[in-house]
Design a protein that fits this description.
CATH architecture of the largest domain in chain B: 3-Layer(aba) Sandwich
CATH topology of chain A: Rossmann fold
Number of strands of chain A: 8
CATH class of chain A: Alpha Beta
Strand order of the largest sheet of chain A: 2-1-3-4-6-5-7-8
Strand order of the largest sheet of chain B: 3-2-4-5-7-6-13
Helix content of chain B: 40-55%
Oligomer: heterodimer
Shape of chain B: globular
Structural class of chain A: alpha/beta
Strand content of chain B: 15-25%
Number of strands of chain B: 16
CATH topology of the largest domain in chain B: Rossmann fold
Helix content of chain A: 25-40%
Number of domains of chain B: 2
Chain lengths: 294, 394
């Protein structure tokens, strides 16, 4: 029997009055993380939207202990916390909550080091596909074709596949998730938090501000990403791959909604011509071909 | 117990005796033996500590910040490029008010690659908000690492401490070092307290979130005053150390025959020993020479420097470092300390020994003499000592 929404903790760990933009997926991620793990947690947050969401000193919107850290350092800070707590025989969930830049660009070296050392931490990348906090600049995770303020004609390169990079380290757990499928995300957080070693969850986080869609559509856009097969939900548990959530039923191309529906829902793709759209559709398909081989 | 130790191993033994329980480190010449020795201590069960072999110096300091935030006594060591690479985290550590201790085997920066002795690396971080103490001997390295934890963890301070030692001159040179008795060290340095704040689910705080201009300046003021007032704690530590072990390093500065001197060399680090030897030679000739070794670079002992140098005729400040476009870093600190004196001594700056070039007793003799001559001639020109003109002409 899978998790039901009514079974979730009614307590809020991200308090109302936080300072995120309306419809912010990072705030949703933090809220769900609280409901998944409760208060026995130390949260490591590098420079990102999640820095802002906490609000300014002396106030904070998070009821759990948080350490704000420089951009490149989160996995290393978490390693230090984990190492010292281990020596004190304390069992606390050490969780990094980083953006895609803080994970796959500037944060990748420290994350790779922590993964290789098998640090007992849960690293969550909330992927809003760009530097949204600094005003929507391109990151390694910005998809091909997307407008940002530093790719005004659309990004020319395809995105970096961060989950595969982390999986190549042979860590016990790598998963993707989406804020639009909260129970799937919570189950992945809970399951992985019981494992020893570095666990990695890549949380798709559609950003109304940066992706140019109305703020009430975050969940809808996130669902479209999954249902069109553009964002695939899976987990790799001790090396064995499994599709999860709606993605389980999308191996057959015919079951997927057209990728164009996802693209059309966002202003950042409005300049795309048919050739660019074709490339995006082909890239989605080739990812599924890859998955079929697994 | 007397043991023959290199400067690097002295730092490692200092950390061992301090009962550190966390090390995160990344190798760089000439610091490597510090972290190798500590790895040996941990793997042989001599030291009960978590050792994280990180993938960079940035991560070394980051891991120390994480560990120290949850209450560990954290140690790392670095040098040169490693120190500059971790600079961001060094600033973060001090403003987080974490009592981390780091040994630095001071070395030149490239390009071109050079592993020789130079102080530009540690001095480049003089504004990072750390306490900086520079040793003269291997014994002082060991003693200072232990004192550093006592100073760092004092509730009046709560700041990280860098302990500087000269590359090779100390780091790779062995001398007899007295190992202090563990029981007495434990008395001098009790376990780290949980005060004032630890990162813990039992008592949740948010550390380091956004601040407004309405508070930021006050936070920096508190950091600045804690660092400035750490002088008293450093002096207390030195005094108690002397009463327990019979060794004092003068606290903030090490004054050698300065009281009646007409000419004084101001210097940092191991080569002050050679300067002292030169001063002794000159005293025999009837020239009243003295040496002032600056032991604590931050907080800079401005008042103490002023008091010692106010009656001196001529001062030579010897910099084994360079702030290109400005000159020696120490000379500018000394001049600024002396400026408000009604009657200031003559000050001449020397740039020496960059990239591991040797500086000898003979060189210090020449510097003393040249300074007296420059004083007579009113020549305040910065002096690049022993520049090889042939190399420049090529």
């Amino acid at each position: 029997m899978s998790l039901q929404i009514k079974e979730l903790d009614r307590k809020e760990y991200l308090l109302p009055g936080h300072t995120a933009c309306p419809g912010c997926p990072a705030a949703m991620g933090l809220r769900l993380l609280g409901k998944a793990l409760g208060s026995n947690i130390i949260l490591v947050i590098p420079a990102s939207c999640a820095t802002i969401i906490q609000g300014a000193f002396p106030k904070t919107s998070l009821t759990v202990p948080v350490i704000n850290v420089p951009f490149a350092s989160s996995a290393a800070i978490a390693s230090g916390i984990n190492g010292a707590l281990g020596l004190q025989h304390k069992d606390v969930n050490v969780v990094v909550f980083a953006g895609d830049g803080g994970t796959g660009d500037i944060g990748l070296q420290a994350l790779s080091g922590a993964a290789e050392r098998g640090e007992n931490i849960l690293f969550i990348c909330y992927d809003n596909e760009g530097y949204e906090n600094t005003g929507i600049q391109r990151s390694c995770s910005t998809p091909y074709g997307a407008w940002t303020t530093t790719t005004i004609k659309g990004k020319q390169e395809k995105r970096k596949d961060i989950p595969s990079i982390i999986a190549a380290h042979g860590v016990p757990y790598v998963a993707t998730a989406s804020v639009s499928y909260p129970l799937d995300f919570i189950e992945k957080v809970r399951k992985s938090s019981k494992m020893k070693g570095l666990k990695y969850i890549h949380l798709h986080a559609p950003c109304p501000t940066g992706w140019r869609f109305p703020s009430e559509k975050t969940i809808e856009v996130g669902k479209l990403a999954v249902l069109t097969g553009t964002w695939i939900l899976f987990e790799i548990e001790y090396g064995s791959f499994r599709l999860t959530g709606p993605s389980r039923f999308l191996l057959d191309k015919g079951k997927r909604r057209p990728v164009e529906e996802y693209l059309k829902a966002q202003g950042r793709f409005k300049h795309l011509n048919s050739e660019m759209i074709k490339r995006i559709v082909e890239e989605v398909e080739s990812k599924w071909v890859e998955i079929k081989r697994l | 117990m007397l043991k023959v130790l290199s400067g690097n191993h002295s730092a490692a033994f200092g950390a061992l005796l301090s009962r550190i329980n966390f090390v995160a480190a990344y190798p760089i010449t000439p610091q490597t033996q510090i972290i190798e020795k500590l790895a040996e201590f941990v793997d042989n069960g001599v030291l009960n500590a978590k050792y994280v072999r990180v993938e960079s110096e940035h991560s070394a300091m980051a891991a120390c910040v994480g560990a120290s935030s949850v209450g560990a006594r954290a140690f790392t060591a670095s040098s040169s490029h490693g120190l500059i690479y971790m600079a961001e985290m060094a600033f973060w550590a001090s403003a987080s008010r974490l009592p981390i201790v780091m040994a630095i085997s001071c070395r030149a920066l490239g390009p071109p690659w050079n592993i020789g002795n130079e102080h530009t690396d540690i001095l480049a971080l003089r504004d990072s908000g750390w306490i900086q103490i520079f040793a003269e001997s291997n014994q002082e390295v060991l003693d200072t690492v232990i004192q550093a934890y006592r100073i760092a963890e004092d509730e009046r301070v709560l700041l990280p401490v860098m302990v500087g030692l000269d590359a090779f001159t100390l780091s790779h040179t062995s001398e007899p070092v007295e190992l202090p008795n563990q029981e007495t060290v434990d008395h001098f340095l009790p376990p780290r307290s949980d005060k004032p704040y630890l990162l813990s689910p039992e008592n949740p705080f948010t550390f380091g979130n956004m601040s407004n201009p309405t508070e930021h300046m006050e936070l920096r003021f508190m950091h600045h005053t804690a660092l400035r007032d750490a002088k008293n704690v450093i002096l207390e530590a030195d005094k108690e150390w002397e009463s327990l072990f019979g060794r004092s390093y003068g606290g903030l500065l090490d004054e050698f025959m300065c009281k009646d001197a007409e000419v004084v060399i101001v210097v940092i680090g191991a080569s002050s020993g050679d300067a002292k030897e030169a001063a002794v030679v000159l005293r025999k000739e009837g020239i009243k020479a003295g040496v002032l070794r600056i032991r604590v670079i931050r907080p800079f002992p401005s008042e103490e420097v002023r008091n010692l140098l106010s009656r001196v005729k001529a001062v030579a400040v010897v910099d084994r470092d360079l702030s290109p476009g400005s000159g020696g870093i120490l000379v500018s600190e000394v001049k600024s300390a002396l400026y408000n004196l009604r009657c200031r001594p003559f000050v001449k700056g020397y740039i020496v020994g960059l990239g591991g070039r040797d500086v000898t007793v003979g060189d210090y003799l020449a510097i003393f003499r040249r300074t007296l001559k420059s004083y007579e001639e009113g020549d305040v020109q910065e002096d690049w000592f022993n520049l090889n003109l042939e190399v420049l002409e090529k």
